[in-house]
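User: Good morning. I'm curious how histidyl-adenosine monophosphate would be positioned relative to this chain. Could you predict the structure with it bound?
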Amino acid sequence: MELIAQRPNGTKDVAPTEVYKWHTIERIAAETAECCGFKEIRFPTFENTALFKRSVGDTTDVVQKEMYTVTAKSRDNGKDSGEFTLRPEGTAGAARAVVENGLLNSALPLKVFYIISCFRHEKVQKGRLREFHQFGAEMYGSADAGADAEVIAMVAKILDRLGIDNVELMINSIGCPKCRAEYHKALKEYFSARKDELCPTCLDRLERNPMRILDCKSPICQDIAKDAPLILDFLCEDCSAHFEKLKRLLGEMGIGYTVDPHIVRGLDYYTKTVFEFVTKDIGAQGTVCGGGRYDGLIEQIGGNPTPALGFAMGIERLILTMDSKGAQYIPDKKCDLYIASMDEDAQTKAAVLVDKLRSEGFYVEFDTVGRGLKAQMKYADKIGAAFAIVLGSNEIESGKAMLKNMATGEQTEISLGDKFVDDFSNVAVANMFSGTLDDFSMGNGI
Ligand code: HAM
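Assistant: Good morning! Here's the predicted structure, ligand included:
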């Protein structure tokens, strides 16, 4: 047999045996965000292309080279035709959603988080996919550096609770439009001197947005950019004071950081604080989280002027990082009970009992593929069932069966009548608490 098509390059399937890793990250990140006052927001996978062009910026690599865009033909007299793009990131869509739904008219700050798939037509390599997933959070309505510290502290807490300690926090300030005017002038001067060596995209950027040359992926442009003037030397008084306050707060909170004046981020909307959490343990694509402040974006897309900031962490990169150091995940739910059956009457009884226990939240299985008893017990073992019951004509007749603890071999008589669910619950709960504590505590805060 040959598949008619394979998965597109740069995408990944997640097998049911791997999905616990995703659940661990999504659960820990969401729970931590909720403790910090963030609530989940959901928004579409695609948006009008104009939204990304205006917010992410039409001189960025993301917009110029990496967007998946379709032109949709009209189905309604031209009203719904247009150009749509699969979201390359979440900040623009979240910003559009909060403005469009009037969410910024209520008490601020507004704090939201999201778990989304994103799409970028990038060169595929380890940790760099074309469909990838982000856990992101955005906070609207606070201009104070205290909010920057709060958001950075939240990322640090999520990483800590996931058992990730092999990451470093890098911070920088890229100023506001006021201080950036002078900086752009200096960059233009610097890059003009080596104009002939720049890639064609950066040649265009030199005129339109010279800061974007700083994060061009072409090795030659990167080499030239190494000695370019640094934005930190051009910060205005307000941006400087903001950055100083952030550093003081991080220091007070015991959050270690390094100032990296080369961080500019690849998206146009940032102002003032930008930050990245980076690991050396997963190869060249070691940035597991990126974020920063974007005080002009809400107004730029049509809302009232509202300062804002946020971050997004790449879930695939978090998994690579956790795997690189053997961090623990929350294990999958294990099978509580397997009810084996020796004939059709017994299978019918098993189906009824299974259904009752499932209603109480137990994970219970029985045979539906017609295996012999030996094969059923082998299967029970394979799926890690904690207990097993074998039903045959004797058990059906007497209304009683033996409940076998699969780990110890210990057997207890159990009624198959009205008391079945209560009896099983008592044994299962007692067994849970007699297990080693390691079954429950992950040793890394989970
Ligand atoms: P970003 O730095 O483009 O920022 O992406 C955030 C994170 O997503 C990265 O640090 C990385 O972990 C992951 N990521 C990005 N591209 C890929 C890829 N091709 N394959 C795998 N993982 C990837 C943003 O997206 C901003 N919206 C973050 C933000 C939110 N800033 C303010 N609020």
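Residues 289 and 362 are 37 Å apart (CA to CA). Residues 436-446 have pLDDT under 50 and may be disordered.
Let me know if you'd like a different ligand tried.
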